[in-house]
Structure formats: C-alpha cells, structure tokens
Amino acid sequence: MRTATIAINPTALTHNLNQVKKLAPNAKVLAMVKANAYGHGIKTVLPALQQADGIGVASFAEALEARQLGWDKTIGLIEGVFSASEWQQAINNAFSCVIHHTPQLDWALENVPPVDNPTRQIWIKYNTGMNRLGFNDEALILAAQRLHDAGYQLILATHFANADDRDHPLNTVQKKRFADMINYLKNTISPDIQGSLCNSAGIVNFASNHYDWVRPGIMLYGSSPVTDQSAADLNLQPAMDFSAQIMAFQTVNIGDAIGYGSGWIAKQETKTALVSIGYGDGYPRVINGDAYVCVIDTNSNQSYVCPVRGRVAMDMIVIDISQAPTDIALNSKVILWGVMPHVDEVAVHAGTTGYELLCRLSARPERTQV
Ligand SMILES: Cc1ncc(COP(=O)(O)O)c(C=O)c1O
Known about the structure:
Helices cover 28% and strands 23% of the residues. The chain is α/β, with parallel strands linked by helices. It folds into 2 domains: 212 residues, Alanine racemase (TIM Barrel, Alpha-Beta Barrel), CATH 3.20.20.10; 130 residues, Beta Barrel (Lyase, Ornithine Decarboxylase, Chain A, domain 1). Bound molecules: pyridoxal-5'-phosphate. Pyridoxal-5'-phosphate binds next to α9.
C-alpha cells in the first residue's frame, strides 16, 4: 500500500509551549492554531496545548471546531467577525474577537453581550506600521473609549511586520507606538486595559515587550521564528514527522536523465530509489538541487542522507542512494521533514518558509500520532 504519513508528536508541542512560558513567564499565552494548527491538525494539537490560556484562530469555522472539540477557554478570532450576524454567533459561542475596523465596532456597540460573556473581551487592533489590520491613532482612541463605555474589557493588540529580523528599523517604531498608546489608554480610559504585541519572533527577540498576552504560532510547532537562530538553538522540537516509503529501485546510467523535464543527468552510474511522495501530498515541487531526505533502512535501522534528484512529481520523487554502503530495504522509511531534515531547512531549499510548507500539506497523507 502507498504510504505517506504525517505523524504528530504531542510531547513536542507541550515542550514547545513550555519553552514559550519560560521565555514569557509573566504573560498569558494565546496559542495560535489557525490553518488547522499550521497543518498539524487542530484535533490532535489541542490536547497537547491544554496549558495555554487561550487559542487564536482566523476563521469562524475554526473557532466553532475548537469549541466542538471541547476547548472551553478563550477562543480569539484574530480577524474578528465579518457581519452583524456573525457577531451574534460569536456571542452565542463565547468567542473573543479582534475589532480592527469601523463596521466591527458598530456591530459590537449595537449588540453588547451579557456581562459574564467572554465576548465582552475585545482585542482592539492598533495599526502600528504593518498597514494591514487596525485603527490609526485617533480612531483607535475613540473606538477604545466607546467600547470601554459600553462595558467591554480591552486588550490593545498589534502585530509586528518584521519581528523575525531583530534589527529591522520598523520594530523600534512599532514598539514605541504601542508603548505610547497603551500608556495613554491606561491613563485616560482605564488602567485595566491589557496589551498584546508579540508573535513567536517577538517573544524570542523582544523580551521586554511581552505585555499581558503573547501569541505564539510557529514556535509551538517546532520551527524557528527568527532569522539568526535555528529551532535547535531555541530548544524547540519539531512536532511533525512527514514521511513516506521506498517503493522501487533503479540504476541510472551515465548520461541518462531522471524524471519530468529530464533536467538532472547522471554524471556517474547512480543507484536511485523511488519514494511514494510528491507535491500532491504537500512536498514542494520547487526544491533546489541541495534538497535531501533521510532514509532509515528497515534492515539495519541505519539512517542515510540522500539527495533528491530530478523534478518532484505529483506522487513520486527519486532519491540518490549511491552513498549508502549496503543495500537499502524496499519499503524503508523516508523522512521528508522532521528531526532531520528540519522543515526550516527544506523551506530554504524550496525558497519559502516552514509556515508555508506545513500549511500546504494536502489531505492525502495518513495522519497519526507518535
Ligand atoms: C495576529 C497574529 N498573532 C500571532 C500570530 C502568530 O505568528 P507566528 O506564527 O509567527 O508566531 C499570527 C500569525 O500570523 C497573527 O496573525
């Protein structure tokens, strides 16, 4: 049987959450589980993140799924709702919403939830420089005042555009705007107003800016959020093992090409193995010539680093096993990403990020837990 497997490691998820808590000991944690928990599967991930104070999702359907799965703490809708009727449903399901533009403000002011309903907690989004979501200064102050007067509890929230690059000049600007605004709101509206600034990269790079809530995403899944430190440097463990199996062997003669486009030509006789994985499963088609996989030979239990040769097809890739000293067994496990290679490394070879590779996995691979 063709096997491609996504195995999730709940212990690694819990470990990574604990790393967040060590880095931000005084902040509450809104664990980001949008996009099906960055491709890991929300159902598998939630039990491992029980010690988070809340979870963040991007869509109403994701929020409903998390509630149906039994998550009874904060569920934050990071883009808020998209209509007045969705606002009512947010109240019905006790979701906590971002308000980032005037229509959402109007829906919230027209329909204020009961006192003990968690929808009374609003993440009011401040545009500090990313220019995507959020109110600018004057509108923010006005909106905050009106929401406070209507009985809402406020968390001032913003999002870094470049937190992965510690020295990017916009970081300083965003941090200063945020600090000035939260001080102003605390002094003029209510000292109880909370703050939330940091995603994973902010948590790592800006320890003095954690405020009341941090919002880690990618680091929970074991990828590095920053440009100058690896996941291992940050003591993060990959939560996903993406693997397939060797389905056949070939020997390619000198001068012969492999796969579609015939772009890779053997300079010497090359022992290859065919692996049951492709872009139809979520392995990127656009990898460069340095991409490799790790084969674990079923017979010897030895691991071998094997380069990928030729184009990635929908269902198959070809790998070079010439360096393996002995014959590798048919059906041996091939790790596309996991501990080695790490998804961040594959992402470099694909000209993208770990975020994209994880989120783009298809429905075809079997999903399990380790
Ligand atoms: C508002 C907000 N906060 C936090 C995050 C988590 O970011 P990261 O995965 O980089 O930690 C995201 C992700 O895009 C986001 O949009």
